[in-house]
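Q: How would the C-alpha cells look for this protein?
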Amino acid sequence: MAIGTKTLATSELDTFEDQRLVEELRKAKEELFNLRFQSATGQLESHGRIRAVKRDIARLYTVIRERELGIRATPAPVETKAKKSKAKKADDAEAAKEEAE
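A: Here is the predicted structure in C-alpha cell form.
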C-alpha cells in the first residue's frame, strides 16, 4: 500500500490488525526520514510528499490510540464459508439410484 494516498483512509485502517498498523507506522516513519534526508541534500522532488506522510503518521497514531481507549473497535476475524465439494453431488446421485430401486 502506498503511504500518503487515498488508500490509507480511516475506513481502510479499521480493517487492519494491530500488528499491521504498527508495521505501517514503522514504514511511514522510515519514509519520512528518507524524505527529510533527501530534502536536506536537495534531491527531493516533491515537497508535498513530506506533508502527506506526516498526516499518514498522525492518522495511524490516532487509530492506534482510539483502539487502546476502546473508542474504535478492533476488526473481527473474518470467517470464511466452507466450499461445497463436488463429491456431495455424486453422493446425491447414488442416493437417488437407491431410492429408485
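Residues 18-41 form the longest helix (24 residues).

The chain has four helices and no strands.

Upvote if useful.
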